[in-house]
């Protein structure tokens, strides 16, 4: 329950602002729902505001959701709040805070500007303004140290959780010791072509290895062609997009998960999902992936298929090493369960109230 010095005190009113929300699917959307429900378990009253429109899909939530509210409604919702929490900066929904001073907390879940990104003069001006707005928050949180280093000032790191209701080690599943999995979108930035190149170099070195590619996207056909041309048609299986239960089953039947991202990921929740399912993670060593993957995981040089190949060959040749890393992966995942993230975020919400110098009983 919420901390309270007076039994009669009303619930803390939290407005959670998310530019994207259900039915859109992604990290911001998932964490927004997890945190909203978690804050309610702490006794808070939660309202979600989003720019994502309503669709024909129906889904009920235990909290109110306002989609694309009118300026007057948005102003009224912010005015009623005790604390405003932007789950990733939503600048288009920020303007009421310029008129009504409320305790304000921001979480960075994506890059404001990509590391090394070349910007035009207009873009530099635009993003400089966005950085200045973010710096006005009473409390800033980031989901990885890489994102925390992305802005000036004191930034608390609270890593993402994973959906522990779906991802776990299953009893009775036989795990292939030479089974490799990729789980994610099939787009150029995800670097699946690097994984296919590395796997092609395993042919003739590791007999019986398999590669299962879970996901879909614009590059699927190109990747299927690359796998066939690389002589992997008997080793690689493309299974398309899968729900979380099906994805967890696939992970439980394999031993290694590769995250070969070309771009520096802000975090990489798939690393936690893989660890929770008992897999060793091999990841591109940049961005927030080291935080997500943990010390027991194996990092390779980003954009370097040769480096990835070398680490895969070493793991597939060392079953004892894989077994030890799998055990440590489970301990790493345990530290990132949903309730751990929720409790840390609720503590940050309460710190926002204190540091803004405002109480709830007005």
Write up this protein:
Helix 10 links the parallel strand 12 and strand 13. 37% of the residues lie in helices and 16% in strands. The protein is built from 13 helices and 13 strands. The longest helix has 18 residues. It is α/β, with parallel strands linked by helices and 362 residues long. Helix 1 packs across helix 13, helix 6 packs across helix 11 and helix 9 crosses helix 12. The N terminus and C terminus are likely disordered. The strands form two sheets. The protein has a seven-stranded parallel sheet with strand order 3-2-1-4-5-6-7, sandwiched between helices. A six-stranded parallel sheet has the order 10-9-8-11-12-13, sandwiched between helices. The chain folds into two domains: 167 residues, 3-Layer(aba) Sandwich (Rossmann fold), CATH 3.40.50.2000; 156 residues, Glycogen Phosphorylase B (Rossmann fold, 3-Layer(aba) Sandwich).
Helical residues, percent: 25-40%
Quote the CATH topology of the largest domain.
Answer: Rossmann fold
* CATH C-level category of the largest domain: Alpha Beta
CATH architecture of the largest domain: 3-Layer(aba) Sandwich
- Spans of at least 5 consecutive residues whose pLDDT stays below 50 are 1-7, 358-362
Number of separate strands:
13
Whole-number mean pLDDT: 92
- Amount of beta strand: 15-25%
State the helix count.
Answer: 13
Large-scale geometry = elongated
The SS-based structural class is alpha/beta
C-alpha Rg, in Å?
22 Å
Measured between the Cα atoms of the first and last residue, the distance is 21 Å
Sheet with the most strands, sense and barrel status: 7 strands, parallel
| Topology as a string of helices (H) and strands (E) | EHEEHEHEHEHEEHEHEHEHEHEHHH
């Amino acid at each position: 329950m919420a901390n309270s010095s007076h039994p009669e005190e009303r619930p803390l009113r939290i407005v959670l602002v998310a530019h994207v929300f259900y039915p859109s699917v992604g990290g911001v959307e998932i964490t927004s729902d997890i945190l909203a429900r978690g804050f309610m378990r702490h006794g808070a009253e939660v309202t979600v505001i989003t720019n994502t429109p309503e669709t024909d899909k129906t889904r009920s939530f235990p909290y109110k959701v306002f989609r694309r509210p009118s300026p007057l409604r948005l102003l009224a919702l912010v005015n009623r709040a005790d604390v405003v929490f932007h789950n990733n900066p939503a600048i288009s929904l920020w303007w009421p805070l310029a008129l009504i001073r409320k305790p304000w907390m921001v979480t960075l879940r994506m890059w404001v500007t990509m590391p090394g990104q070349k910007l035009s003069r207009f873009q530099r001006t635009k993003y400089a303004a966005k950085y200045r707005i973010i710096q006005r928050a009473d409390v800033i949180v980031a989901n990885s140290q890489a994102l925390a280093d992305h802005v000036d000032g004191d930034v608390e790191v609270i890593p993402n959780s994973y959906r522990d209701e779906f991802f776990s080690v299953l009893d009775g599943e036989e795990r292939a010791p030479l089974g490799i999995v990729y789980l994610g979108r099939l787009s150029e930035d995800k670097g699946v072509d690097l994984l296919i190149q590395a796997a092609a170099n395993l042919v003739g070195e590791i007999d019986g290895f398999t590669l299962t590619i879970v996901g879909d996207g614009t590059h699927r056909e190109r990747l299927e062609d690359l796998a066939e041309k690389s002589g992997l048609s008997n080793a690689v299986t493309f299974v398309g997009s899968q729900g979380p239960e099906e994805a967890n089953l696939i992970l439980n039947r394999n031993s290694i998960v590769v995250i070969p991202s070309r771009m520096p990921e802000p975090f990489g929740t798939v690393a936690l999902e893989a660890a929770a399912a008992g897999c060793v993670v091999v990841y591109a060593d940049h961005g927030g992936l080291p935080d997500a993957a943990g010390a027991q995981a194996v990092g390779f040089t980003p954009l370097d298929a040769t480096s990835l190949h070398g680490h895969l060959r070493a793991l597939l040749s060392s079953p004892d090493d894989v077994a030890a890393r799998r055990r440590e992966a489970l301990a790493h995942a345990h530290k990132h369960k949903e309730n751990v993230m929720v409790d840390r975020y609720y503590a940050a919400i309460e710190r926002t109230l204190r540091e803004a110098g405002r109480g709830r009983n007005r």
